[in-house]
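Suppose a colleague, Dr. K., hands you the sequence of a protein chain of 288 amino acids and asks what its three-dimensional shape might be. Before reaching for any lab equipment, you can write down a predicted structure in token form. Begin with the sequence itself:
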Amino acid sequence: MLRTTLTFTITSFYFISGLAYPVDTTKFKSFQSLEQAGLIESQIYGTGGYSGNCFRASFVNNTTDSAFIWIEAGRRIFSDDTTIQDIFIAHHEMLALAPEAQDSVNIFGFCCQATFGAPYGNSTFKSGEMAPKTWVELAEYLHLNEFPTSAIQSAVWVFSDNKPMSSISDGDPELIAPLKKKVAKLLGIEVPWYTVGLKKIPNQLSSDIVTKIEGLIDFYVSSNGIISILIKDQNGQIVSRPIKEEAHGPGEYTFELKQYVEGWKKGSYTVYVIQDYQYPIKKKIFKI
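The predicted structure, expressed as tokens, is then:
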């Protein structure tokens, strides 16, 4: 009952005050600072998995006063096993502990070293440190907005491992559109029109090898004609012909590009929509 009341109060504080953190920081203090002062003890461990509610933090209050503990969204906790990924915390968590009491709370976190191994059950972590500003802004956004964990994980790797923003994907593009828009804003770039698929490698959660490009291309045909769609590399060489030739009448069309690109050289590629074998009526650029 107490924790339910605290959660309501904290949420109200955010909307009333308009602070960046939805936390009453006059009352709740970072667990790291409380631990460094000797007021509490903590243990952070994995429960199995690498994305979402797969982590837990246990606390002991060493004092005769109540302890108000804050686990910050935007904190990066360090793995004790150097072969296991560190974890980026994406939700704020608060816990009120009575004097000399102990309790635990789930942590909503994501791996942030893509080439390292996934945490196993009972993997242990240190309190770590706050991540860079843009990471923290992402975490604050995730605390208030719900998205599929797979899309969030991809977004985290964009910041931590320089994965392409086009790797953020899900079965429902509209559902994750706000997340992609937020990431693009934090990075100062436009939202890519396409998504990339990354090759799965044994013993590695993610790779840098692009295997496919997917995206929608809208185009308008003003008169009857033959439409071709081809892809050229940055040297102007044709590398694929998704549509060799199809008759189209006047109107608006959408082409769904699904192009396998594993083995293609890194660089920029241009998709051309061509009418009557010579007139480019639309072009789109993607990178791998």
